[in-house]
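seq as requested:
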Amino acid sequence: MKKFNLITLTRVAVLIALEIILNRFLSYSEPNLKIGISFVPIALCGIMFGPYWAGAAAGIADVLGTFLSPFGGIYPPITLTAILTGISFGLFLHRKNVKFFPNIVLCTLVNTVGLSLFLQTYWLSLLRHIPYFTLMGLRALQCGILIVLYLILIPLLMKLAPKLEHIR
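struct tokens:
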């Protein structure tokens, strides 16, 4: 875990703000489907600062973002999934010698299939009273698109992160 200081806190706050903008304003959103690149700031937070900071940033961004969302209020299980997503980015990507396989591929599968497709779909089915497998069919499209985006963008973020570490 990165040392707690004002520079780290400021960088994480900027990534939270960027996640909210990308998630709430620059994503294709339906009540049960969201496609976009809002994972990029949280992935970058996980790469640079580790699982604790990334989990906290994802949770804070989810809570703050719900105040700007047209789809309702805070639903703690969905916030939990956001936190788990941030933690998973930090666990898989915050280290030296991150390899495409297994680190990036496993991170992608855990986040897109495990957390988004299975867990998030379950929470949405409970929240919206829609059958789980009906939602899963719709969200499988989202999962496929996000897998491609993750596998393209995360390696680029891995190259960008060391350059951002030196910016003050």
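Strands lie at 28-30, 33-35.
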